[in-house]
Design goal:
Shape: elongated
Mean pLDDT: 83
Structural class: alpha/beta
Low-confidence stretches: 1-17, 258-263
Strand order of the largest sheet: 1-2-3-4-5-6-7-8
Radius of gyration: 36 Å
Helix content: 40-55%
Largest sheet: 8 strands, parallel, barrel
Distance between the termini: 64 Å
Length: about 300
């Protein structure tokens, strides 16, 4: 057994044995598969994102891009939703309406606005918590506000938005309250380490990160398993990421150089023998190849 182990450990593969030689057609097919796999990965990541339509944006263009990228929804204010709901319905794009503006509004007013927007066809509702309650650490009143909002939601997807300028410990506490209330998402702006808040969520509540504007941050959030990523630069990020898939196709031109493979020795001998026959006969062997004739009853060798 030890001899076998020593023998195995002593074997060293040569450079040629480690490589794999593909034909040009196989290499082209392989790199086309890798490119398509990369594109599927990009589209899967984009389907977890959400677009943004501001009052000054071209709603038609933004909805067209969101439909092309298959984004989960498009975020906008309630007034903007009333203007674009016909186009959203035609393109079958989910609308995410912002409720309560900055959040410094009575909970019952927010609940009434949620009911109106829901009846108008909004698929998702994002409501801002009252900042003054968070600043004063009045968590019992925050819990009561969340209960009122929960009753107004019915079957819609609802999210609770909190500004990110609060200490991390405060955000952790609110994340637990939001999970307890049964919200679908806890929404916070992007900051370094924001993905750690997902460990504070439970009961099916997921983390939503808003304001991801660079491809590196977008990839980081996807890798961390963030439930939803809200960005106003979704199409630009998609274009940048797609260039990586185009590079894969370019690598195929560099790595498809074929090396000549030595033919087996028996094949070489057959070829040499065939060449000798074409030239006028088989190759002569002095021990076996000879000529003779009979003269005067005697055998003579030539």
């Amino acid at each position: 057994m030890e001899k076998m182990e020593n023998k195995t450990s002593g074997e060293v593969l040569t450079k040629e044995e480690k490589g794999l030689i593909l034909t040009a057609a196989d290499a082209e097919e392989y790199y086309a598969y890798k490119k398509q796999k990369k594109i599927n990965e990009i589209m899967g990541a984009m389907s977890q994102s959400e677009g943004v339509i501001e009052l000054a944006d071209d709603a038609q263009r933004a909805m067209e891009r969101a439909s092309r990228l298959r984004q989960a929804a498009v975020r906008m204010k309630s007034a903007r939703f009333l203007q674009a709901r016909g186009e959203l319905s035609r393109r079958k794009i989910a609308a995410d309406c912002l409720i309560g503006e900055s959040g410094e509004t009575l909970a019952r007013v927010k609940a009434y606005e949620m009911k109106l927007v829901r009846k108008m066809g909004a698929s998702e509702l994002t409501v801002a918590l009252t900042p003054s309650l968070i600043d004063a650490c009045r968590y019992n009143e925050i819990r009561k506000e969340l209960r009122i909002l929960k009753r107004a939601v019915k079957k819609c997807v609802w999210k609770v938005w909190v500004d990110g300028h609060y200490p991390y410990t405060t955000l952790m506490r609110i994340a637990r309250l939001v999970s307890e209330a049964g919200a679908n998402f806890f929404s916070v702006p992007y900051f370094a380490g924001c993905e750690q808040l997902r460990f504070e969520l439970y009961k099916g509540c997921r983390l939503e990160v808003v304001g991801v504007d660079t491809l590196a941050d977008f990839k980081k959030m996807i890798g961390a398993g963030i439930g939803r990523i809200v960005t106003s630069r979704g199409y630009e990020l998609y274009t940048q990421w797609l260039k990586e898939a185009d590079k894969i196709q370019g690598e195929a031109l560099k790595k498809t150089e074929q090396k000549p493979i030595d033919a087996p020795q028996n094949e070489v001998k057959k070829e040499e023998k065939a060449v000798d026959i074409l030239k006028g006969g088989e190759k002569k062997n002095p021990e076996t190849d000879y000529r003779c004739r009979i003269e005067d009853g005697e055998l003579k060798f030539l």
